[in-house]
Amino acid sequence: FQLSRPSMPNNDVLATAVTTTNDFDAWLTRHSKSHVLDSEYQHRFAIFAQNAALVQKHNHAFAQGWTHYAMSLEQSPFADLTDEEFRTSYLMEWQNCSATTHKSSGSVKSLVQQKMENHDSTFSDKKFVDWRTKGIVTPVKNQGGCGSCWTFSTTGSLEAHHCLAALKTKQNAVTTTRGSVRGGGGAQEDAESLSYLDCTSWTGLAEQQLLDCADPYDNHGCNGGLPSHAFEYIKAAGGLYTEKSYPYLANSTGTTCMATQQRKHLAPPHSVVQVAEVFNITSRDEEDLVQA
């Protein structure tokens, strides 16, 4: 038995055995970063060089067929951070997600099935769907130095539902999503209409609203939270703003919830997406996932 060896060399021009300050300067320019103090510059360059050597070693292993994925240094905005710095700044503490690891109860499954009776099977009947090729996956965002990944997981899911509704509208099939999410839209400038929404360039929904407003639902701003709790907040609040109308700041404003201060409610056209129901999907249950 012999592992296949993909003919893919290390093509990351910055991940080389010998890394120079010119390489580091090119990376800084690419990611619009700078280190003013010489001591900080030298410190970050040393970390960058270590990461470059790691990537170069890993990609060599990939070329030999010893691992299944390649790594990129030049594409990463975190290449001048240590592992510990990255964990501290961008990750969050372990959370109890047990609600999503138990089999759905019969009553919940029945409710899901009831709501999906009229479900459009355009995609769910297929054995394989790459949503990226369907134009409903929004661009990757950067959470910055804030443990807010739970907000991006939440908005990413809702953006996909909203974009799927836009796709169906363009196909003259249906004008709103069915199931657990309803698409809003309206005449207001910041409420992107389904009729012209381009999800490959759309800035999406407001993570900052969740950071500022979802604490009462057992979320903790930049210190972590859960998408399931965020969905409950959106359902109760009446909707979620767009990124355009409630820009991301990469920090928790504490007691300031602009969604509450600016408007009494978040009904259309003020919000783009509303949550009608929230369901936990059993871990590794592909049937539940398809139905959702």
Automatic annotation (TrEMBL):
InterPro entries: Papain-like_cys_pep_sf, Pept_cys_AS, Peptidase_C1A, Peptidase_C1A_C, Peptidase_C1A_papain-like, Prot_inhib_I29
Superkingdom field: Eukaryota
SUPFAM superfamilies for this protein: Cysteine proteinases (SSF54001)
Sample GO molecular function, one term: cysteine-type peptidase activity
A single BP term in Gene Ontology: proteolysis
Domain Peptidase C1A papain C-terminal, residue spans: 125-289
Pfam family, one: Inhibitor_I29
Keyword tags: Disulfide bond, Zymogen
Domain (Cathepsin propeptide inhibitor) ranges: 24-86
PANTHER family given in the database record: CYSTEINE PROTEASE FAMILY C1-RELATED
Family of the protein in this entry: Belongs to the peptidase C1 family.
UniProt-recorded name of the protein: Uncharacterized protein
The species this protein was found in: Entomoneis paludosa
